[in-house]
Amino acid sequence: MLRFRNLGSGSSGNATLVEARSGSAVTRILVDCGLGIRILERRLAIAGLCTGDIDALFITHEHSDHVGCAHTLALRERIPVWMSHGTWSAQGGRDYEGLLNTAEHGAAFEVGPLQVHPFAVPHDAREPLQLSCTDGNRRLGVLTDLGHAPAEVLKHLSGCHALLLECNHDPDLLEASAYPFFLKRRVGGAHGHLANAQAAQVLQAVRHDGLNHVVAAHLSRKNNRPDLARSAVAGALNRTEDEVLVADPIHGTDWLSA
């Protein structure tokens, strides 16, 4: 059984739990750790868990809303960490006391029954990775923080039964925002963040009858609205807007099965 729960998504911090059950054994990976340690503890408690229940960390890139308390958490709980060499280097090469594992594009690794498949994405970070993961039966894709989705990215999302997908901004709201010109170009550029329509194009390319849950994630508080993201995702999937979930910056999502 494979399920996931977002603990918060957006510029204030990103973290997603992925859980696989095999018999009585449970394995949990935390994808990104962009929250303060006390906030993370509170949100895990709502899910009935604590920091000691996490078996591995996967950090997608070095931006603070994704790294957060990863170093503190890993050392305190002795949790193995996976990230790219570029992500580690961009953080100043911090000492993880033997807990650090180098993740690479196209090089799968295993954590208990979970097989994790990292893949490179175009984003303004040193060596950003996103991922899909599977328990051998179901597959989850996590795709946030990228400016566009080339064919190689779409290939890695093929066959996913659930997808956490960036719907960062609406171009009109971004253009009308108080952001300075350089920041508008960065966010909307080829190495920035996916707009709602771009997310819809991703879904149109990878959708299949077995794709159950799609969660719109990493919405900009100033340059997007949940109703706009829902509309784009629903249209791409030929579903009603009520069937589309949006990850909240504070509440995330409930547990969802892949």
- Continuous helix count: 9
Average pLDDT value? Answer: 97
The H/E string reads EEEHEHHEHEEEEEHEHHHEHEE
Gross morphology is globular
Question: Which CATH class applies here?
Answer: Alpha Beta
From the N-terminal CA to the C-terminal CA, the straight-line distance is: 8 Å
- Rg to the nearest angstrom? 17 Å
Strand content: 25-35%
State the domain count.
1
Looking at CATH, which topology would you report?
A: Metallo-beta-lactamase, Chain A
Structural class computed from helices and strand pairing? alpha/beta
Largest sheet: 7 strands, mixed
Which percent range fits the helix content? 25-40%
What is the assigned CATH homologous superfamily? Ribonuclease Z/Hydroxyacylglutathione hydrolase-like
Number of strands: 14
CATH architecture: 4-Layer Sandwich
Residue runs with pLDDT of under 50 for 5 or more positions: none
**Strand order of the main beta sheet, please?**
6-5-4-3-2-1-14
Concise overview:
The protein has one domain: Metallo-beta-lactamase, Chain A (4-Layer Sandwich).
Description:
It is a single chain. With 258 residues, the protein is an alpha/beta fold. The protein has a single domain (2-257), classed as Metallo-beta-lactamase, Chain A (4-Layer Sandwich), CATH 3.60.15. 28% of the residues lie in helices and 26% in strands. It has nine helices and 14 strands. It has helices at residues 37-46, 64-67, 70-77, 85-90, 151-156, 171-176, 181-188, 196-206, 226-237, and strands at residues 2-8, 15-22, 25-31, 56-58, 81-83, 100-102, 109-111, 114-120, 129-134, 139-143, 162-166, 213-217, 245-246, 256-257. The chain has a seven-stranded mixed β-sheet. Strand 10, helix 5 (151-156) and strand 11 form a beta-alpha-beta unit. The chain is globular. The termini are close together.
